[in-house]
Amino acid sequence: LTPEQKLIARIQDQVAEISNQYVNGLIQTVQANFRVSRLTVKLGTGWYGLSQVQQDKLANEILNRTQQLNFSRLELTDPQDKVLARSPV
Fold first, then answer.
1. Looking at the whole model, is its pTM more than 0.90?
2. CA angle at 45 for the pair 21 and 48, rounded to the nearest 5°
């Protein structure tokens, strides 16, 4: 793996660690765009089975982890690439 691929794998593991507290396998993919400092996390349909409170808490936890990883923008999408949540503008 290239250094960038290793970093993305590490980021994916950290984000999955958070999401697995809610639903195992919720994270489908993680895409990092380092040039624009954006992390895109594609979530599975299990997102829709979470309560509003759980969705908000999960999104906030992923946002906090994203900021710790020095990304300034976050997008959470569903399997059809519909934006579910994003970092505040």
1. no
2. 75
